[in-house]
Specification:
Helices cover 75% and strands 0% of the residues. It is built from 19 helices and no strands.
C-alpha cells in the first residue's frame, strides 16, 4: 500500500519529496522494495521516466539509489532494459558531478549479472568509457566503482572479450600499486574474474604482473589478499606458468608444490 500511495507523487510536482521517501524506504527495506517493483511494474516505469527529465543532481542521485534497489530481480531488470535504462546510466556516469558519476557506476555494477545487461553496456559504448575512468585521475570512489563494473563484466564471456580488446588488463594492473583499499579490492577482484581465462593469465605473466599479485597475496587487506590468491590459483592451472610462480613463492601461498623440481 505504501508503494502505491507514494507512486502518485512521482507523477506530480512533489517529485523531490516522493523520491526522498522511496530512497529512505529503500535503504531500510531493500528486499521489499524490489519485490514491490516486480509486483507493480509501473513503479519502475515512473522512476526510469524521471531519470532523463530530472535536472537536480541530488534528486537524480536518489533516483539511482532507488533504481539500484528495485532492479535486483531479473524480471524487473529485464523491464528496465526494455525501457532503455542503460543509456541513461551511461549518460549519468559521464556527468560533471562526481557524486552522480559514482552512484551511476554503483547502480551499473549492481545490475551487471546477465548477458543481456552486459550486451546493453557494450551497445551503449560503456566499456571504453570505463577504461577512461580507470586511466584518469578521478576520485578513489569513482575509480573503485569503475573497477567494480569491470569486475562484473569479466563474469560474462562477451564482456570479457570486449574488455580484452580494449587492453583493460593494463590499467587494472596499474591499480595494484594503489594505496586505497577499496580500489585494490575491486582491481584484484576484476583480475580474479579475468584470470578464469587462460589468455589473461598468460598476459599477466608476459607483463611481469604475477610478482605484484604474489606481493598482494602476502601483504594486503584481507579482501584484496584473497582475490590475489585466487588469481594465483587460476594461473597455476597453466603448466608453463608453474615454474614462474614457484620462483616467486606463489605456489606456496596456494598450497602447491612445483612438480618438476630436480
Amino acid at each position: 500500500g505504501w508503494i502505491g500511495r507514494n507512486l502518485k507523487f512521482l507523477r506530480r510536482e512533489t517529485v523531490r519529496e516522493a523520491v526522498a521517501r522511496f530512497r529512505d524506504f529503500a535503504n531500510v527495506f531493500r528486499e521489499q522494495l524490489g519485490k514491490a517493483a516486480a509486483a507493480q511494474p509501473d513503479v519502475i516505469d515512473a522512476i526510469i521516466t524521471l531519470l532523463p527529465t530530472t535536472h537536480a543532481v541530488d534528486v537524480r542521485i536518489q533516483l539511482l539509489e532507488v533504481l539500484e534497489c528495485m532492479t535486483q530481480g531479473d524480471a524487473i531488470l529485464s523491464r528496465a532494459l526494455d525501457l532503455g535504462v542503460v543509456p541513461m546510466l551511461v549518460e549519468a556516469a559521464n556527468a560533471s558531478d562526481a557524486a552522480l558519476r559514482v552512484q551511476a557506476l554503483t547502480t551499473m555494477y549492481s545490475n551487471c549479472r546477465t548477458d543481456a545487461y552486459v550486451r546493453a553496456l557494450i551497445d551503449a559504448s560503456c566499456l571504453p568509457k570505463l577504461l577512461q575512468a580507470l586511466l584518469s585521475n578521478c576520485s578513489h570512489a569513482e575509480t573503485a566503482a569503475a573497477a567494480s563494473v569491470v569486475r562484473m563484466c569479466f563474469r560474462s564471456d562477451m564482456g570479457a572479450e570486449c574488455l580484452e580488446k580494449l587492453d583493460i588488463l593494463s590499467p587494472l594492473v596499474n591499480l595494484l600499486s594503489h594505496t586505497n583499499d577499496a580500489i585494490l579490492e575491486q582491481a584484484t577482484g576484476a583480475l580474479r574474474n579475468a584470470t578464469r581465462r587462460e589468455a589473461n593469465c598468460l598476459w599477466l605473466s608476459s607483463h611481469g604482473s604475477l610478482q605484484l599479485l604474489v606481493a598482494l597475496a602476502k601483504d594486503s587487506a584481507p579482501a584484496s589478499s584473497k582475490n590475489a590468491v585466487v588469481c594465483l590459483r587460476n594461473c597455476s592451472k597453466i603448466l608453463k606458468l608453474q615454474k614462474e610462480l614457484h620462483s616467486l613463492g606463489g605456489l606456496e601461498l596456494i598450497g602447491l608444490r612445483y612438480p618438476t623440481i630436480k
